[in-house]
Amino acid sequence: MASLGEVKQELLAVIDAFNVDDAPTPPTQLERLIDAIQPLSPIPDPAHQLPLVVGSWSNLYARFGVGHSKGKSHREESSLSLQTFRAFPDIAIRVVEILQEIDLEPRTYNNVVLFETLDGAPGLVIIHGRYEPDGEDARRFRVVFYAAEVRPRGDLDEAGLRAALGLDADEALRREFKPAKLYSDVVYLDEDIRINIGGMGGVYVLARRAEPAMSLSYN
């Protein structure tokens, strides 16, 4: 039987190869490895260990249950509408990186998408959310997403971002939407890797970032 270290090493190697490959779908062994590592989790009760869950995490692999990603979380063509619960128009963008940022108090649960327009203008999406640990399942987090925000990155300002996206000069860059009530199960957690399975069927493998969170101060 393979050890935790062996399974983890193979899992990360397969994800690395997939992210640099042009394969249209994830390799079949990826789901097998995700299944195999879950019972080996060093922290089986993440909802009771919140300080170990909070922070800024980068998606190494993201398969969205709604079907708008093949699994790649880097340089994946998408649309602003799909990345914002349809709060913004259907504007073509290129996803650069997907982050998840969680705070202890207040109980913030933000998804952050770093993107570029097809002309290369840099921006980021923040899907603002909040969470509560489930009272009965030690791996489950109840999450409510309620607003989408678009912000410029780098030297670009808000006016430049609006122009790059084709938005009117007075259009709001933060938009509330009908709260989306979801859940996410943290099925594996150690010091530097987390695996989530969402209530809509999404599967996410994340790595803890050393850099400061990009969204938590915006709440």
The N- and C-terminal alpha carbons lie at a distance of: 46 Å
- Overall average residue pLDDT: 91
Give, in order, the helices and strands: HHHEEHEEEEHEEE
- Tell me the structural class: alpha+beta
Low-pLDDT runs: none
Largest sheet: 8 strands, antiparallel, barrel
Spatial ordering of strands, largest sheet = 1-3-4-5-6-7-8-9
Number of DSSP strand runs: 9
Into which percentage range does the β-strand content fall?
35-45%
Helical segment count: 5
The helix content is 10-25%
Shape: globular
- How many separate domains make up the residues? 1
State Rg: 17 Å
Written overview of the protein:
Strand 3 (92-102) and strand 4 (109-117) form a beta hairpin. The protein is of the alpha+beta class. The longest helix has 17 residues, at 4-20. Helix 1 runs antiparallel to helix 2 (28-37). The chain has an 8-stranded antiparallel β-barrel. 20% of the residues lie in helices and 39% in strands. The chain has 5 helices and 9 strands, in the order H-H-H-E-E-H-E-E-E-E-H-E-E-E.
Summarize the structure.
With 219 residues, the chain is an alpha+beta fold. 20% of the residues lie in helices and 39% in strands.
